[in-house]
Amino acid sequence: MHNSNDKRTCGDALGEPSLIAVTGLAKDYRVYDKPEGLLASVTGLFHRTSRLVEALKGVSLTVGRGEFVALLGPNGAGKTTFLKLLSGIITPTRGTAKVLGHVPWERADDFRRRFALVMGQRNQLWWDLPAAESFRLHKEIYRIDTPRFERTRDELVDLLGVRPLLLQPVRELSLGERMKLELVAALLHEPEVLFLDEPTIGLDVVAQHTLHTFLSHVQAERQMTVVLTTHYMKDVAALCERVVVITHGDILYDGSLGDIVDRFTTHKIVTLDLDDTPSHERMAGFGFPYEIRGPQVILRIDRARIADVLPDILRSQSVRDVSVEDVPLEEIVAELFRSGESPATARFAEALP
Amino acid sequence: MTNPATGARPGSVALRSKVPTEAAVDTRPPHRSCSGRFAVGHGLRTWWTMLAICLEERLVYRGDFALGTLMRFLPIVTQLFLWTAVFNATNRTDIAGYSRNDMVAYYLLTMVTRAFSSMPGLAGGISRSVRDGSVKKYLVQPVDYVSYLLAARIAHKLVYYVVAILPFAVVFFVFRSYFPPLPAAATVLAFTASLALSFLLGFFMEATLGMLGFWFLEVSSIVFAYMLVQYLLSGHMFPLDMLNGIASGIPGISVGNLVGWLPFEYTAYFPAAIWLGKIRGNDLVRKLAIEAAWTIAMAILCRIVWHRGTRRYSAFGG
């Protein structure tokens, strides 16, 4: 009876410095090339050419309790492979990982009761039944006692405002509604670690916002550790303090979102509304003119020079309106992704910890 | 504190105090700690809930069953015509110990046994879940896939019986004069046991086939080959007693004897033959034991294949 409890306490007593500890984790896939054409397909029956794809090339990482980490990277960078390894769906080619003190791919029940994985479009909910039924099943398989189950369910359902949907067959719900109920299902057993694979994909702005508010609230309240992959910078800005950028199976950057902006924003975007249409040359004197459309001008100006240049502009031009913005996060990250592909990687690698 | 064991490990106490946040957060009631003593009871309850939910899900599709059940009786009509023609042409009153009435009763009884042992969509469903990745759910959640499949299949069958009992009753009522008088209680009991086992045997054989999906993308041709062998050797096509007269080449052993050692006949022929009184006494006990042994063997094989398959899936796919 006290057995598993003791183990837990013991794990905590040993310090458990990080809930997730990953060292040199690598995963190779063998892919078979299928040449084009019928004849080639026939020969392919007897001889297949294969090559090894390194989905992950030895990643090391630690995540502490209560951290909210975003995994960013272009498609095929290895983000999902990483999440699959951490949730024990796949075994690595090399390297080790411990999540909550367990090796994930041993798939111990004690481990599986303490984490959850939500993969965008894959449903844990029963398609033809109301979500309430799936929740009831989760109550049993995760062994949640009744008062606790009811309390958690009511809390989550009210936070997301999905109570009216509980008794409707899941197949009749919209994508956003389904995603909300998926999250409730995943959080019913109060996992200590939550993995989210592109949770906001395909959702409208309102639904995205609801999920952001919900996730940050629940995460803060429970001190839950969350690792999320996404392509939307809005998710990152709203939720994550720590950002890990993966490209080509390697960690390219690991640090705070603010640091990324600091390090990689070399320029500011200045938008001017002038009285007349200026010449290209006149504007080029201040910075790089992105766009001159009539009296409206968009300039890219070196961040270090902005304090000098801006007064110059205001003094020398008749300015109706002005705004100064950071380069959009999307562009910074896109630049970061691209840098992983080109020889310029070295440039960043030196600059990075 | 007077506990000497606690005093002997000051280190762990000190370390624990280093992580006050975790201790503070972890005020959960011991709902995780009941895993030990109540594991079995809890496993049963989980399984029961699974069954209940599968039942609800199947009931969504109950209309589907009604038509399917009626359709299943169609092939048997051709069998009845065929055997009527055979009996008329040969002018014999019995073939391999079966009169014309026995033959009709036999086919109708195999319909009953097939209603227990056939597993439509099981193998295909498993291999599809591997192909489209939905099997991942059972790797991530603390739930046993084979138990879940069994619950789902029992639910499937229960709903089917509720719907199918009426057409079955009508057909059996119409053909009631073809059946021998009701057998003794012991025979009915053996028949029931053989049916229950045939359900489990059929389930584990097809589940195992479906799990080959971990190695082959598509198992439908394997399933088709299995169905053919099954049709021939289960007694679904003709009463297997007819093979008893055929020498196998091994002295003293007929083809029928050999087939009797295979699992297939237990999914159609065997229960029907029990009801018709074709198998009695020691033979009956021996065959029930063989059926039970095959069921256990297949259950174990199914586990092994699941284990190996998920290991392979983890290593190569996902």
Q: What features would you highlight for this structure?
A:
heterodimer, A: 353 residues, Alpha-Beta Plaits, four-stranded antiparallel beta sheet, 13 strands, disordered N terminus, B: 318 residues, mainly alpha, 70% helix, globular
Can you put this structure into words, describing what you see?
The complex is a heterodimer of chains A (353) and B (318). Chain A is of the alpha/beta class. Among the domains of chain A are: 3-114 and 191-260, Rossmann fold; 266-326, Alpha-Beta Plaits (2-Layer Sandwich). Helix content of chain A is 39%, strand content 27%. Chain A contains 14 helices and 13 strands. Chain A has helices at residues 3-13, 38-43, 79-86, 109-112, 131-141, 146-160, 175-187, 205-222, 233-239, 257-264, 280-284, 306-316, 329-341, 345-351, and strands at residues 20-33, 49-63, 68-72, 94-99, 115-119, 193-197, 225-229, 242-247, 250-256, 267-274, 288-293, 296-302, 319-326. A six-stranded mixed beta sheet of chain A has the order 5-6-7-3-8-9, sandwiched between helices. Chain A has a four-stranded antiparallel beta sheet with strand order 11-12-10-13. A three-stranded antiparallel beta sheet of chain A has the order 2-1-4, covered by helices on one side. In chain A, β8 (242-247) and β9 (250-256) form a beta hairpin. In chain A, 37% of the residues are buried. Chain B is mainly α. Chain B has one domain (38-316). Chain B is built from 15 helices and no strands. Chain B has helices spanning 4-7, 10-18, 20-25, 39-60, 62-72, 74-90, 100-117, 122-131, 137-140, 145-174, 185-211, 220-233, 255-261, 269-275, 281-316. The radius of gyration of chain B is 26 Å and the shape is globular. Residues 1-36 of chain B have low confidence and may be disordered. Chains A and B meet through α1, α4, β5 and α5 of A and α2, α3, α4, α9 and α15 of B.
